[in-house]
Amino acid sequence: MALQNDKINTANLKSFFPFFKHNPDLTYLDNAATTQICQPALTAINEYYCRSHSNVHRSSHTTAKANTNQFEQVRQKLAHWLNADSSKEIIWTKGATEAANLLAYSLSNQFSSGDEVITSITEHHANFVTWQQMCIKLNLKLKIVRLTDDLKIDLTHLESLITPKTKVLALAHVANATGVKQPIEEAISIAREINPETLCVIDGSQAVCHLNLDVKQIDADFYFFSGHKMFAGTGIGVLYGKQIRLEQLNPFHFGGEMVNQVSVEATSFNQLPYKFEAGTPNIAAVFALGATVDFLSEIQTDTVRQRESQLIDYLLHQLQQVPNLSILAKHDLVGAVSFNISNWHPSDVSEILSQMNIALRVGKHCAMPLFNEINQDGSVRVSISLYNDKQDIDKLIAALLDLENFL
Amino acid sequence: MTQLYSEQAQSLIDFFQQQNGWEYRYRHLMKLAAKLEKIAPENLSDDKKIDGCETNVWMQFDCSNTFNFTANCEARIMSGILYLLQAALNQQTLQYVSEFNLSIYLNQLGLANHFSESRTNGLKSIEAQIKKHAIR
């Protein structure tokens, strides 16, 4: 791949992301919304379309066969990267949102009126609205687990919510609005202890580029994330599912290549993982994801991980030097810090910072139920990634200190 | 392109045009927020909320004689913009308001280029409400 001849300088990781070359004056701190695409992913997309564009799983000419092989190799690569048992457990989706919708839809025939789904208010809408709407449609009971003062799932409350009727526990690994890493392993084991049939669904969108993921260790039934939040570009997501669970699911979309036999009267469906992948997939994006995983396997060393966690500590420390700034949650932060400044509406902060070339996100971060409870105005969220450095944080802090000159 | 303005709006345009740099324009916009004529608290209700704005905006219109509106917004920059609209439109004839071109005004103030797509969309919703009340 592209990196082989390059000496990897982990001190300046921005050089692997062309965005920064084209936006040298921008301080990009909106990584929880999307991360920049890495050069290896761009190269993979370009090479696919320039040199080998043809379909997968259908035609038998040379480029088509080579593509199919490469396409399935990426699936194996992802299975290995996540420590899944088999590449059958890796389903390609458009992104995390489609993965959540696939699950809610495909599981729906396993539920009956009165069954229960448990989620929390700190979920992204993708993992909240999806289940809420399924509950409304099927007359299921949506139970909301409370949060502790540091905005983590309240495990004692969770324990009290699980019953023999609990079918799904849907939680985020890292909350997108606050950056708080949730105690998902404990939550899963509590749920299984009380009701072993509870399907545990984890949204890993905000964890995937910050934590080493091991789906066996996490032990969720389903775990999903988006490629664009791990430097691979948009249009691709991964749904991991335990094989035994995936086999119980109905197909989500119908169409080509997800079938086995079709007659006028009936259709039998293809085996895993293909029964969930109707139609021509986003081949270029899969190749980009594969190239990204190779890239990350090379550069995401312990040193890089450690530097990132030190940067979050530095960010947290520096933010606390800004007058009138209150941080939503300070413990177990992964990749992001969310805060408010008294007497400042978040949208004013964002607008002025944007004029200062600082990119971050304000508002309710697709987590309205959370902000309805804690702050109607939403918050300011700063989110870092492996390519950010102390200078980025220093520019942010200088800009925040400058805000009072606007009053 | 230009259009005729109230004395108050013209002096705001003159002031904004003298400001070199976005910092000064924004600083002034935030100061103007304090001048916004607000909806009386007892009249503030959800049906006055304007859809499509980044931050919550409420507007109340009184077009019994000339055009007049009061407005509330939680954010300062948007409140400043609403004040700019009050300066240009309040106490004008309904005819004037119905023909008023908001984007020319914002361009002359030197603000249009600073606004994001979602801010511009919010302003379009506000403009639509204004026109709806002026053209009856």
UniProtKB/TrEMBL annotation, chain B:
Residues 16-132 form the Fe-S metabolism associated domain. PANTHER family: SUFE-LIKE PROTEIN 2, CHLOROPLASTIC, SULFUR ACCEPTOR PROTEIN CSDE. Belongs to the SufE family. This is Fe-S metabolism associated domain-containing protein. InterPro entries: Fe-S_metab-assoc_dom.
